[in-house]
Inverse folding.
């Protein structure tokens, strides 16, 4: 068996095109997922038991079922319900964001709860309102602690976007599989796409490292 | 510092790429000598994807189907004992290419691309791709698929046939892991048609009459396809099985098995012409 570089070169334009979509899907889902995650994470720590249990239900459902199943359900069930037809890219962003939001919510909750109670008391006694204290005192400190787990989550999300190939979203893995399907080869497509994912995750983690260093106070 | 560690990773991964390529080629050499020994042994390891009724599928924990009956008859004829194992579609090709299995059954279409890597028996089944569309669809031929989104299964001849019509990796072609998901995409309005082997689409329509789908035949756009048993390149089994297949053609066993599974008589002349 020979390693066929020629088929990698042949598929390179598709792989790169797929890489762009992978980046787009991941960035979109990271942003949407973080906003939604912050909202759900805050909802999880409000004192109203009924409301907070709703958010807890959300987390349980999305963290407790496989992402692959969620992708299928959203692609074949939810999106056609609203749009009338399937759309793999939209379904992909929705599934990834909703799934990531459940994990990000817990990261936010843990970050906020890790800040000493005294910080809130101090801010309040300076005359800040609860939301001011949250915005200027608690969240900035919490955010610093949340960067490493958030980075983890973003990297997982980027790799999980490869699951979208099952609903034919033309991202990186989709083209890898198309290449394997055409030539009945496994090493070339999987190693080539693994290499590109590796480059993407290394880039992402070095960006996160940079952010971490920026946030360093001492 | 960062830059250097990035370079380091690039070097390491390139290394891995090269290593894996070498690794597989040397392991092939090792197993091919084993393969020669195994042609003396009497038991064959057969791999299949048992999810393709009526060719091979699970009935309880047993693999049954047309291919299974035929290969058992061939094994009896050649005097081998066979052991059929379900490994899935893509792994079939890996198992055979690396000589870990002696032959593969699985409604595998013989084509030139596959022939570069594998050996095939004489054709034993004739098949064509057909178009599955909603009952009210205006699509009546392969040509009319242009401008519509077509769902196919990755790596199948249906996928190839559509690429020939629309263009390779055309944006209107959606490739799925299996025909079931492709058909689901059609049902939810994400595609206008599915192109797949006639047996697949016809079985689907027969079993799901409530979905309001119909099958469109187009013998000018879709060529005749022939299924063959797949062997590792250079396998000595090919000659034995080809001969046995002709015996089964002549003594009526093949016809008997064919009629049992498809309810009609096979076209033996077309199959023999291909040899």
């Amino acid at each position: 068996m020979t390693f066929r570089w020629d088929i990698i070169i042949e598929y390179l334009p598709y792989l790169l095109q797929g890489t762009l979509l992978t980046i787009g899907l991941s960035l979109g889902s990271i942003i949407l997922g973080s906003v939604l995650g912050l909202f759900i994470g805050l909802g999880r720590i409000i004192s109203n038991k009924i409301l907070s249990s709703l958010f807890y239900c959300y987390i349980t459902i999305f963290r407790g079922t496989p992402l692959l199943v969620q992708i299928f359900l959203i692609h074949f069930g939810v999106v056609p319900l609203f749009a009338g037809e399937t759309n793999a890219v939209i379904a992909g962003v929705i599934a990834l964001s909703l799934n990531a939001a459940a994990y990000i919510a817990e990261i936010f909750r843990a970050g906020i709860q890790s800040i000493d109670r005294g910080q809130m008391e101090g801010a309040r006694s300076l005359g800040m309102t609860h939301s001011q204290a949250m915005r200027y005192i608690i969240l900035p400190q919490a955010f610093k602690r949340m960067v490493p787990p958030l980075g983890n989550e973003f990297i997982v999300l980027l790799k999980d976007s490869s699951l979208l190939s099952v609903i034919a979203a033309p991202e990186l893995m989709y083209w890898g599989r198309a290449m394997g399907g055409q030539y009945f080869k496994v090493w070339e497509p999987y190693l080539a796409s693994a290499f590109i994912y590796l480059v993407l995750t290394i880039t992402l983690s070095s960006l996160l490292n940079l952010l971490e260093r920026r946030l360093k106070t001492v | 510092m960062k830059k250097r560690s990035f370079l380091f990773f690039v070097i390491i991964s390139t290394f891995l790429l090269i290593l894996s390529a070498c690794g597989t080629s040397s392991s092939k050499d090792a197993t091919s000598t084993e393969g020669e020994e195994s042609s003396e042994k009497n038991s064959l390891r057969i791999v299949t994807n048992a999810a393709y009724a009526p060719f091979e599928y699970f009935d309880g924990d047993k693999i049954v189907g047309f291919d299974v009956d035929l290969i058992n008859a061939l094994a009896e004829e050649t005097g081998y004992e066979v052991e059929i194992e379900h490994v899935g579609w893509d792994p079939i090709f890996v198992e055979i290419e690396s000589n870990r299995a002696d032959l593969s059954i699985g409604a595998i279409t013989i084509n030139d691309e596959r022939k570069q890597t594998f050996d095939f028996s004489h054709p034993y089944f004739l098949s064509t791709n057909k178009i599955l569309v909603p009952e009210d669809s205006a699509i009546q031929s392969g040509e009319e698929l242009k401008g519509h989104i077509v769902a196919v299964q990755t790596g199948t001849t249906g996928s190839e046939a559509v690429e020939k019509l629309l263009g390779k990796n055309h944006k209107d072609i959606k490739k799925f892991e299996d025909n079931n998901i492709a058909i689901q995409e059609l049902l939810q309005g994400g595609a206008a048609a599915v192109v797949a082997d006639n047996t697949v689409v016809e079985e689907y329509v027969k079993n799901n009459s409530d979905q309001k789908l119909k099958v469109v035949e187009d013998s000018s756009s879709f060529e005749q396809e022939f299924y063959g048993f797949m062997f590792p390149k250079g396998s000595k089994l090919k000659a034995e099985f080809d001969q046995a297949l002709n015996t089964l053609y002549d003594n009526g066993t093949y016809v008997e098995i064919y009629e049992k599974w498809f309810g009609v008589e096979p076209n033996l002349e077309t199959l023999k012409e291909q040899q």
Notes: The longest helix of chain A spans residues 5-44. The domain at 5-215 of chain A is CATH 1.10.3720.10 (MetI-like fold).
